[in-house]
Predict the structure.
Amino acid sequence: MKKAGEQDYNRIKKTLIKKLYSYKAFRKGHLLIETLQSGLPSHLIGYVKFALKELVKDGLIVCYGKTKHGLAYQLNIKKLKEIEQIIFDIT
């Protein structure tokens, strides 16, 4: 597998956050990993799990839990301002 560059990796993380935000996946909402992977270029899909793990470590995304379809994720409502800064590129 080809290595993703730093720019691609940051783009994946921002895309994941944007997708969760657009689906309003905060308290009750959540998205499965397959849904998060959709829409990304095929050569970058393999890096989604690594990006999710890093975002969970940073506290921006939390694991909703295991559903009957697989693992689901949602945004951390406590870090809403930081999430909006990332999405809207507010400095």
